[in-house]
Amino acid sequence: MHETYDVIVVGAGHAGCEAAHAAATMGSKVLLITMNMQTIAQMSCNPAMGGVAKGQIVREVDALGGMSGIISDISMIQFRMLNRSKGPAMWSPRCQSDRNVFANEWRLALERNRNVDFWQDSVNQVLVKDGRVEGVKTDMGITFKAKSIVLTNGTFLNGRIFIGQKTFGGGRTAERSVTGLTEQLVQLGFESGRMKTGTPPRIDGRSLNYEAMEEQHGDENPGKFSYSDTKNLTKQRSCWITYTNTDVHETLKEGFEKSPMFTGRIKGLGPRYCPSIEDKINRFADKDRHQIFVEPEGWDTVEVYVNGFSTSLPEEIQQKALRKIPGFENAKMFRPGYAVEYDFFPPTQLKHTLETQLIENLFFAGQINGTTGYEEAACQGLIAGMNAHQKVVVKDPFTISRSEGYIGVLIDDLITKGTEEPYRMFTSRAEYRTLLRQDNADLRLTEKGYKVGLASDQRYQNIQSKRQQIANLIDDIRTTKVKPEEINQWLSETSSSQLKEKTSVYGLIKRPEIGLAEVDFLLQFLQYPGEKPNEETIEQAVIEIKYEDYLGRERINAEKIGKWEGLEINSDFDYDRIKALSFEGRDKLKRLKPSTIGQASRISGVSPSDISILLVYMGR
Question: Checking DSSP bridges between strand 214-216 and strand 239-243, what pairing results, if any?
Fold first, then answer.
């Protein structure tokens, strides 16, 4: 063990793993402290990665040089690209994962990194001197020194588990909670709060009747998350869909009087967009059924995850209600669903680097910041780990703007607006979502990751080559012309106006009635001077052409807003000197300490006139 580590990461969930990997890959000596070495990268809830907006985050993590995309590709058992019927900005990759393979591969990836050491223990104190971290102290009474610390405690800070009227300490089933750390941080001046999340029961798949359900296959040509050379799936496992009914709902209502949610024993707010089944029944009383997704937990297990049936009702009510769902008539439960309530720290206490404003070189990432989801946690861990390293080596902080990535949107939302409920990413949160597509994450972010030493040389060379191939292909499409007799019959079949003279393939692709599915026919007219581009390059080029006008407008808007992002505000700026600021605006600016005018403009309660006054004061 080192006498002093560059970075200590506390917690080995999705945030902790990415933080440790990032800092170590960039050159820091890292100590990863976890309560249980057997639960590194545990998928505590559903065995899946990606989804709407979440898939974009996984691809961004991969583009920067993180590991979540690679691990997801290795461990996936099914792949689907969601929202294919919508525009490319909405396409979102999602995979079902083998829970055990996912965790095992993450541990192996960390063990292969010679800069990562491990220690199994619980941290109950952060050592601070003169406003700067010095190390941590564990339950065993051991002190580890460090230059930077990343806290990724998940749901374990004073965690309490609820099943009906039963309650006991724990951050996850069969795992104890962490005490003492919240209290110490509050004494140091941090504000804390409580949040709630939950998980459904796990079922023995051998006891289910799949013939009573709808089969949900993966994509015929499955994709993947990573831009590296991970392999595509050659076989997949199906998921299944079934529905609740009025009998199920009436049975669940029998347990409402014992529900910790309805009796007020749970104080924390749960995720609005992933409510428990009892909350859905209560809030949407007019609906007589709700969708249930039956998801296998892996290749070689019979355990099944019941997505859509998260609950903290008594276990006997859970069992009784489950057996009234079509296909679940003889269902056997491995373990009941439960709710967990835990401490978090409002993220308005952080900088864009995820370093705390109060204590230097102390970083927070994941559910400690009030977020929910593996993907949201992973990207925060990545950014916190990168910046923990950058602070140690005294280099510029690493940040991503709202126009550069969903990661930038997430972090800016958290530190600027805060959150009163578990924060989940959606495409609607990103004002530049046409630019921030899942297909171009590498073009947007790999160079940034390479410049700070996280993305590899090979990644950088690949992106340079891809960029050139796309440019060459777009040039070929612009210069290739098609004669009327070659195309008019096909144009009639696609309800597009016929040609009267030779027209470029570029102009035909731009036609609104010609969708992405029809473009393959047009590309046959190209005479590739070299090797034919791969499908990814073709898709990228076609999207750039087809949405050129929209993309151009978004880039212009992003550049305008970006000018404000470049106007920095000193952390010790005295807002009390500017008497013309509104009372609320001054109060919010003093409390949140925005680092730029752009960030200040997004703070709720700071008016446009307040921003104008600030700009005048700064000589702008």
Answer: antiparallel
